[in-house]
Every structure is written in C-alpha cells, then in structure tokens.
Write a structure and sequence with these properties.
With about 90 residues, the protein is mainly α. The protein contains 5 helices and no strands. About 75% of the residues lie in helices and about 0% in strands. Helix 2 runs antiparallel to helix 3 and helix 3 packs parallel to helix 5. The protein is globular and about 35 Å long.
C-alpha cells in the first residue's frame, strides 16, 4: 500500500485494499505489531480522505491492546497520529 501511494495518490483505492489485507493477515497470524503498522497506514490514508472518525476508531482499537512498549517507534507513531486525529 505504501509503495502504491508513493507512486501516485490516484492509487488510494488499491492501497486501501492492501492495508485491509495486511490487517486481515496480521490478525490471522496474531501479529499485533504488524496489525498496528497496517492500522496506522490505513488511518493515515483515511485521515487524508477526511475519514477521521473511522481512522481514529480503527487505530484506537489496535493501539489499546498494547500495555507496554510505548517507547517503540511504531507505538509512538500511532500515538502521535491518534493525538492528531483527536485534536480535530
């Protein structure tokens, strides 16, 4: 999804499908870190599309699972995005 968006913003639909597939696979594999990364990427896309509520809900649901590791870059990025989404 990130690569598609890097090529052109017109690839947003395809990128969204990739992020959703990544969410599904990471959940099947019970990989919370990969789920967080996919959710963060999808939330960034949705924020750009003015789907802020959906982005915040998705990311909060995944972020809240983590009880430790809040100093990692993935969790810092997610927290920063959540703060931005909550501010508007």
């Amino acid at each position: 999804g990130e690569a598609l968006l890097g090529q052109s913003e017109s690839n947003a639909d395809e990128a969204e499908a990739c992020f959703k597939m990544a969410l599904t696979i990471s959940r099947q594999q019970q990989s919370r870190t990969l789920e967080l990364r996919a959710a963060t990427s999808l939330a960034v896309l949705w924020k750009a599309q003015d789907k802020r509520d959906a982005a915040r809900t998705l990311l909060e649901d995944v972020f809240e699972w983590f009880s430790e590791g809040h100093g990692t870059s993935d969790l810092k990025d997610a927290r920063g995005l959540l703060d931005t989404l909550a501010a508007h």
